[in-house]
Amino acid sequence: MSEDSKFHHGEVKDSVPPIVQMKNIEKHFGNIIALAGVSFDIRPGECHCLLGDNGAGKSTFIKTMSGVHQPTHGEILFEGKPMSFATPRDSMEAGIATVFQDLAMIPLMSVARNFFMGREPTKGRGLTKRFDVEQANEITMTEMRKMGINLRGPDQAVGTLSGGERQTVAIARAVYFGAKVLILDEPTSALGVRQTSNVLATIDKVRSQGVGVVFISHNVRHALAVGDRFTVLNRGKTLGTAKRGEISPEELQDLMAGGQELAQLEGSLEGTV
Amino acid sequence: MSEDSKFHHGEVKDSVPPIVQMKNIEKHFGNIIALAGVSFDIRPGECHCLLGDNGAGKSTFIKTMSGVHQPTHGEILFEGKPMSFATPRDSMEAGIATVFQDLAMIPLMSVARNFFMGREPTKGRGLTKRFDVEQANEITMTEMRKMGINLRGPDQAVGTLSGGERQTVAIARAVYFGAKVLILDEPTSALGVRQTSNVLATIDKVRSQGVGVVFISHNVRHALAVGDRFTVLNRGKTLGTAKRGEISPEELQDLMAGGQELAQLEGSLEGTV
Amino acid sequence: MSDSAPNFEADERIKAEPLISRLMKRPELGAIAGVLLVTIFFLITADSAMFTASGIINFMTPAAQLGILAIGAALLMIGGEFDLSIGSMVAFSGLFFGVCVMVWGLPLIVAIPLTFVFSACVGAINGFIVIRSGLPSFIVTLAFLFILRGLSLVGLKWASGGSTQLRGVRDATENDWLAPFFSGDAFPGFFAWLAEAGLIETFQNGTPKVPGMPVEILWFIAIALVATYVLLRTPIGNWIFAAGGDANAATNSGVPVRKVKVTLFMVTACCAALVAIITVIDAGSTDARRGFQKEFEAIIAAVIGGCLLTGGYGSAIGAFFGSIIFGMVVIGLTYTGFDQDWFQVFLGGMLLIAVLFNNAIRKRVTGER
Amino acid sequence: MSDSAPNFEADERIKAEPLISRLMKRPELGAIAGVLLVTIFFLITADSAMFTASGIINFMTPAAQLGILAIGAALLMIGGEFDLSIGSMVAFSGLFFGVCVMVWGLPLIVAIPLTFVFSACVGAINGFIVIRSGLPSFIVTLAFLFILRGLSLVGLKWASGGSTQLRGVRDATENDWLAPFFSGDAFPGFFAWLAEAGLIETFQNGTPKVPGMPVEILWFIAIALVATYVLLRTPIGNWIFAAGGDANAATNSGVPVRKVKVTLFMVTACCAALVAIITVIDAGSTDARRGFQKEFEAIIAAVIGGCLLTGGYGSAIGAFFGSIIFGMVVIGLTYTGFDQDWFQVFLGGMLLIAVLFNNAIRKRVTGER
Amino acid sequence: QDISVVVHGQANDAFWSVVKAGVDQAAADTGANVSYNSPETFDMVLMSQLIDAAVNEEPDGLIISFPDPDALGPSVERAISAGIPVITINAGGAQAAELGAAMHVGQDEYDAGVAAGEELAAMGGTNAICVNQEVGNISLDQRCAGFEEGFGGTVTVLPTTNDPAEIESKVAAALASDESIDTVMALGASTAGEPSVAAVKASGRDVNVATFDLSAGFLQSVVDGDAAFALDQQQYLQGYLAVSVMALQAKFGLMPGGDVASGPNLITADKAGQVIELSAQGIR
Ligand SMILES: Nc1ncnc2c1ncn2[C@@H]1O[C@H](COP(=O)(O)OP(=O)(O)OP(=O)(O)O)[C@@H](O)[C@H]1O
Ligand SMILES: Nc1ncnc2c1ncn2[C@@H]1O[C@H](COP(=O)(O)OP(=O)(O)OP(=O)(O)O)[C@@H](O)[C@H]1O
Ligand SMILES: O[C@H]1[C@H](O)[C@H](O)OC[C@H]1O
Ligand SMILES: [Mg+2]
Ligand SMILES: [Mg+2]
After folding, report:
1. D249 CB near a chain A CB, below 8 Å?
2. What's the pTM?
3. Which helix or strand (DSSP H or E) is residue A216 part of?
4. What is the mean pLDDT of chain C?
5. To which CATH superfamily is domain A20-108+178-269 assigned?
6. Which of A233, C32, C136, E123 is the 20 to 30 A CA-CA neighbour of D275?
7. Of all atoms in ligand 2, which is nearest to the CA of residue B233?
8. For testing contact with chain D, the best of B106, B115, B132 (most D CBs within 10 A)
């Protein structure tokens, strides 16, 4: 894994106050303990990778950050002030945009309507204030094209899109609306090579604009390509946070696998899956 | 990309008759042309990778193979005989098991019930013949553990599993029931590093038992690690089939991106995303 | 092996599609096929009086009364919920309105807004219980089906001094300037002129068979247009589809799902109140069985018009045509020579055929499997 | 930083869970809280006669008739479909059964199986239309609600020579050896012994107030047990849950969804036929209004018992308790001193409270948000 | 001649099917062309629309039941102003006459209730329940009200649905919770009357049961001594006479000078036997 990436990497300035700070978060579902005390923060202009085995609690954790779940214990500070987001809408209004792992799309609705769901552009005023469908269509097509997807049209139902097309809608939407923090839960999992590189490039771009990015991935190479800091979860607990350069790809991969042995693949996959 | 993998690679014997042969398949949805004439075959003991950009038609194609869609035009031969699967159940009974991209799981049902959905083990006979819940639970837990997932219990609802846990259920199920052909539509997209290497190792294992594997992936490295042949789709058409060794990773990646340029990532991702 | 640069305007992955199939894909227009089929059926079997001006108005009146409810029900169904209490709500808000006018002697300008506010509150209660408890709206509004029906009975007995009928509303409102907006016939002059000109039929004694356009038909059309506009051209419309399509995904995308749903319950209740006001002034009375089973018919009309019971899909225009189909079938039998004993067989058969026909035409035209 | 080897038996990611919360998580048992609540309410407010042996049998009889339908409806709802025609089906298969016995003079051993086969065929027609057309079962079975109701009327007039009632079934079946399985009271000897022993109340002349256990209650219990067994312990049960949970995913996983659904429609129709046979022999007659609105009540009972209208979730035992709640509430008010005009308010209120209570208890016990 | 009949009761209601049988017989006898319609539930708004539909066809005569003068009044006025003669049956004679209806065939519901109440009071009743299987139908309310007046003692209205099994249980429950009930007045024979008899029998108590209208099953109970009497309004006459008169009116302009009281007609054990067969055929 080469360190001399073409990417600019955000300087993790310890002095800059974090936008969101999560302290000792626990989350229980009935008798199931999904998070057993996780701390995490995200600063402006950095890409903080959240890594870990399947079922480690990454998605649960970021859902707590974006107001989907309320933590069972623990504290959330937003720009230094204690904050509890009752709904995802609250967190959005505070400037957090999220791509959820399940994408949060409505299959029966068109791409453009999904794109602007909850934040529809309007034209006219007073009683004639209405959903500006033309603008919505146009922006959707443009943003999708930027990510490398040429849709047949903005009115195709999301349910009939391919897996990668659908994921791209969710990412393009979050990027378009992400103001202060952008949370991406395995955004590249269904993407083609071209779309993946677009997304990584996009992460780099928004980071350089001062947005804090939380990036969840199982791909060590993707994480290392854009990450400034790496926090690894395992079985609902954090295994610690490392800065870029402080940790080798192999160490990282080892942590992500929860310390357990991998099947014999190292040879063919050159060290990292 | 090293060629000296630890994997055994199936010899693609042109002499061995294919299990499934798809000739010039077209599939239209209303006015949308998803497949515009694709030919493909799968032989016993090989892993045939189906690659291509998002929306290229890969999922649509394998759904045609497994009886979910009926082709608009084209012919399917199964073990040499023309065959049209009216339902997925027909294709299963012929020995084809599929992991669909959307996984085909019922969120409200337990892991074990999902695992055996449609093929429940029974005990007793006559009127007392019943669903052998204990056996189902046990097999589920064992098979999941083999794939690297330690479930809390077999009766957790699939809807509350993490993304990777859920995907693993679908893979373990298909592997358990796959008799002649195993179709995997982006099986590793949500998996952790440990689970991914398990799945790749599993592909290798079933191939060596003579099962034909159709493997869809956007990860060039995963494809090259286990693939014997590579067919690339682009915009509903096939760009041709290459054998292992006949094509370089860079060429393959170029084909998968539909020949279009990638964002500037090559440096940091060492040639392949 | 590389591909030509994609060109969005002429994508090779799309076949040309005739206008008609583009239209038939819209849920709004699916129900038109059914309307045509039913019309043709009655043109053949029914007395020609059915399709004269008076005949059309005659079946459009119940269609309009049902349709106002059906559009409310359709909005709510698209938003992912049911309201089984709208039938009882017609009786209950009818009672409330009757009490305003007859017991408290309020003028319409006070009584009507008060009735709407009152009904909206009841709708909001429905909505709050559904939202707060997370119970299916089916069971919650079903409870209100019984509760409101029962309260109507108790209230009527109280208001009328022991009867289940409250009478005299027509006389009490006759001279109110607001009454013409909620009862009777609009444009009587125009219709009288039409009759004189011989453009519409008259009775032997020369009075026009149709004195005017019943106001409920105008309300019906207006509400269908407004609802369609809201659904398709406003942010709230988008929220309604999203809330019904997948409440979870919608919430996670920032749609205020709870507010949307509660508002829809209030709108539905107001539709019921409007029907109550119109029919109470028109009939001059209200009784404990008003609106009986209308919730059911409203849902039928919405479903005929293409709404999915599972939410997230449907249209107000579909409910509009669905109501017309239902109204035509119910009234149409009167104009045919069929034996009343066969009425239900006929009603069920026509509904089934109309829906199957809609469906078959849509599939054929759009090329769906 | 490495993790201890996972140990399934004692997973640190699971909290200890008390037995009660494990039980309350089961949809089967959720409705018990409601039954308890309603029982306590009536123990306080109702005349003590309600909970004597005869009082219990008195409310259990309608609960059982409803419950047989509700269990069928619950299975179908879990499988993702509705059948709105079951009420009409009670009338229609009642007519068919009446005709078998009265017009064709068949013995019960022929008439009863024939009635079941006939009803199952009608159910299968419902199912086939739903499956083939892809239309919502709501609208298809709604059409059959009307059609079957109408055909019952026409058929009855034909069979009885002009009346809407077909009589004399009791006399015709009185001596049939099969009749005791479908009508009257079981275990009369046992009840007589109980009465002698002073364990149940007797009339002044010493005969027990309850001559036996009405057979429908036994059928009700038996069907609830069988349905529960099928749902939880057979492959078909798994298919039903899968078909209702997500028909697409189930089909793609190899579940024969179409067969499952058609079978469920047939089962539901047979439940209606059973209720028809029992009530026709018991009442000795059948008429065109039998089963009126029972489809509705059956769905209510299933939903009270925890079935989701969207399919894929629910239980037969839940429907069992749901029917008992409904039966108790409907009959119970008569035992209380409340003004009977408030009946519907009371019915709706009790249903709502029972369901809210179920829900609240379940959430509290299982720690769900 | 074309004659339209629009009534408020459903074709599958045992009572109204007898009216319809009378209508059909008169149509056959007079050769008139008769159409018969009714709304699917007791729905006054829809009924007024059905009357409008009938009037649109400009029949030679209109026959209606008239349970809600306010709601149906305008439609009747429209018919009369269009020159269509109107006869009312079953309900609402007096009010329709004010609007210009020519004649009424039926029983006054309130008076019938009074008659039944007096009869049952004479049998020694002091505490009664009035079983109403169609709450909100004004005619049935009037019967209970009249019954209360004539009976003199305590009268409790027992509202039910029209499911016989439920009615049986509810009557049983009412009897069990009040030992002093000695009279049950049912408002419909087969839906409410027959299950009431069954409940009374099961209670083993000595309770007088009577019903409005007839059904063969109930009449059998009267014969067997399990029920006191049925109050017949001979609705066959309502259908038959109205159509016959209307046909004559259309042909010759004939119209009787007064109303016909088709009931109430008390059917007790001595007469019940003869009526059973006719009732089973849908004529009484
Ligand atoms: N609603 C819920 N009820 C019960 N258990 C849950 C629920 N949501 C998540 N879990 C459990 O909590 C654990 C963490 O899940 P989570 O989705 O956060 O994992 P993840 O780290 O995102 O994994 P993946 O990489 O596979 O997406 C999982 O074991 C899951 O089974
Ligand atoms: N039911 C459908 N109706 C309309 N269009 C469809 C339907 N299913 C698929 N498509 C379209 O067909 C094309 C191929 O889709 P498909 O899912 O096969 O792509 P894919 O190659 O699997 O892509 P990905 O890698 O993103 O999963 C897409 O552009 C999609 O929008
Ligand atoms: O007279 C009739 C009454 O108007 C109502 O329809 O119930 C049936 C009959 O008793
Ligand atoms: Mg996750
Ligand atoms: Mg795909």
Report:
1. no
2. 0.92
3. strand A212-216
4. 87
5. P-loop containing nucleotide triphosphate hydrolases (3.40.50.300)
6. C136
7. 21
8. B106
